[in-house]
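User: Just a sanity check before I run the rest of the batch. Below are the structure tokens for the first item. I only need the designed sequence back.
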């Protein structure tokens, strides 16, 4: 039997990122990266509510205004303790299950979100992520709010508090974890579709500018077909190294 309850997508975002300041507000085609991401997340059919989880820092006032303008909720919490911020955000809308998303993944595919939620609903894992075969930037994590509440009471390690699901992944003997299998046609782990640095932003912008005008909800396969036709674009951000960030 499929899991029941309210599924809440929590988008972690703040203005004070270190590698690329205010990246979620950087504009592509006259619209902020976060706005374009929310537009895509809204297309996922298995999400019951979307909430932007940002900080109480006055710099993030603009993110609250953006969320409300886009018709989604916003929660303001600790800038440093992202775990508590996300937990409180989802509890504020009575969410039973957390779909953890990050504001630096504006190309997130709503179809992959739905596939991950379905996989989570149809199984009994404590946590479901996306297989590492997907392009980087299609990452999704899903787990019960009750488990994050448990983790909240267990760990005070700064690494765990800054990286919401880190404790779950670091304790596979305690929590059952699985990943949504990546279909062969989407297996492109070398492609970076997340935004950490300037070249990433340029790369993602080129994709949006090429595909969005004809189809605002282009999917991962559309992206990969475009990149196969324009392989020179992969040179833009190929030297960027992935780093865990507090968002």
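Assistant: Here's the designed sequence for the first item:
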């Amino acid at each position: 039997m499929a899991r029941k309850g309210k599924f809440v997508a929590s988008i972690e975002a703040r203005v004070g990122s270190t590698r690329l300041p205010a990246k979620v507000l950087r504009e592509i085609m006259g619209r902020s990266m976060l706005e374009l991401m929310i537009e895509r997340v809204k297309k996922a059919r298995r999400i019951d509510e979307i909430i932007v989880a940002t900080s109480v820092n006055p710099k993030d006032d603009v993110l609250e205004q953006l969320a409300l303008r886009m018709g989604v909720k916003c929660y303001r919490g600790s800038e440093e303790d992202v775990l508590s911020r996300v937990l409180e955000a989802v509890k504020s809308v009575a969410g039973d299950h957390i779909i953890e998303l990050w504001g630096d993944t504006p190309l997130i595919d709503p179809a992959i979100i739905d596939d991950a939620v379905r996989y989570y609903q149809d199984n009994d894992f404590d946590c479901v992520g996306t297989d590492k075969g997907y392009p980087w930037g299609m990452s999704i994590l899903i787990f019960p709010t009750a488990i994050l509440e448990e983790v909240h009471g267990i760990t005070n390690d700064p690494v765990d508090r800054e990286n919401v699901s880190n404790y779950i992944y670091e304790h596979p003997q305690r929590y059952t974890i699985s990943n949504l299998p990546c279909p062969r046609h989407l297996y492109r782990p070398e492609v970076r579709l997340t935004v950490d640095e300037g070249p990433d932003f340029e790369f993602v912008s080129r994709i949006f500018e090429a595909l969005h005008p004809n189809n605002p909800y282009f999917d991962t396969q559309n992206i990969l077909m475009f990149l196969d036709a324009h392989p020179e674009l992969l040179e833009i951000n190929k030297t960027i190294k992935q780093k865990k960030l507090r968002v």
